Amino acid sequence: MAKRARLIYNPTSGREEMKRRLPEILQRLEYGGLETSTHATIGEGDAAVAAADAIDRGFDVIIAAGGDGTLYEVINGMAEKERRPPLGILPVGTTNDFARALGIPKHWEFAVDLILQQHTRKIDVGKVNQRYFINIAGGGSMTELTYEVPSKLKTMLGQLAYYMKGLEKLPRLRPTELSFVSKEKHVHEEVMMFLICNSNSVGGFERLAPDASLSDGLLDVFILRKCNLAEFIRIVSSALRGEHMNDPHVIHFKTQSIQVTSPDYVQLNLDGEFGGTLPCTISVLPDHLHIFVDESGTSTYK
Questions:
Q1: Pairing mode, strands 136-140 and 186-197
Q2: Catalytic: which of 30, 168, 273, 295?
Q3: Domain 3-118 has what CATH class?
Q4: What pTM did the predictor assign?
Q5: What is the per-residue pLDDT across 135-164, written as a single tens digit (0 to 9) for each?
Q6: Coil, helix or strand at residue 247
Q7: Domain 131-286, second-level architecture
Q8: Is 73 a catalytic residue?
Q9: pLDDT tens, 274-299?
């Protein structure tokens, strides 16, 4: 019997490419043996509801088409369910960090073929209070910029929009008093930002967490200590080259679970979306989802 797939897509993502490609994508999936129906998201949180609904209705495969924001919602809709069907990813958004981390091709035809090959890999999922993430959880004044960028601007300018917004914010960078408690380490000091990574591809910084793995049952914690503007720019430049790991301003360790608290109001950023505020407990759910990937492990993000 043919497998049934539910394709959840964001009609506005990636300069609306998904809307234009939909007939071809559906045809390719059908020819490949996946009976596919669609759900076009209509607003914030809708993809999460659609993913949970697809599981309740017994679909065999769920496909998320869009950027990291759509994927974040789909995963939040799936993570609490007892039965979690394999997940296919069509990276047609402005930012597709997670697809890049898994080597899922950016070209839609290759990405569809990958789903049809039906080879899956188990991946860890991060949990923050009652929300979930697959790429990154972060906080501090710098991380707030990602969800301040209007989505229209994101679509038009892509990564550039983030950097423009970031440069605008630099003069307002301020340290925040934070406490981190895990089995491995206790840290209490003023920090510029913290990033807790599940994968090695974060915001276009592919060398930020060079040895992070999606299936090691661990999260990589990066804490950037208080520094001045010149130091901050120097550290970001070295992070682009992957040369930040031994910087005295950078604290790095791996953990399964960490509590983060602050006397201040601190927003959380989960996979580039607003993820609530501190305090929080961040933990890892090992091997929690099955994602379609290239069987050879050599597929590149192209």
A1: antiparallel
A2: 273
A3: alpha beta
A4: 0.87
A5: 889 888 655 555 455 555 455 455 555 555
A6: coil
A7: Sandwich (2.60)
A8: no
A9: 889 999 999 999 999 999 999 876 55
